[in-house]
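quick one, 114 residues, struct below
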Amino acid sequence: VQLQASGGGLVQPGGSLRLSCAASGFSLLFYNIGWFRQAPGKEREGVSCISSSGDSTYYADSVKGRFTISRDNAKNTLCLQMNSLNPEDTAVYYCQIGGQPGSRGQGTLVTVSS
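---
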């Protein structure tokens, strides 16, 4: 059971990106899901997560007010809208089912640079 993140790329400071996370072969419906990131030379950091119903969300202080997490249970996907990006947001972003680090598949690289 692994999730696949996509949507990363190179963006200038102040720009936006929208990351997507897809699951194949199983439903995300009953799971809390989150986004993590790992910058070069740094430890993995929890960025945001959302409850199975979508009613409850969490954001790290470093992204609060800039990032928005959402899920579409009908499409079995998770998204992360990232606005006002800055170079400190540069990292590989992963999506993961809550409490299941093995579900963290290949991430997507976000590079914020001018």
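The chain has a mean pLDDT of 94.
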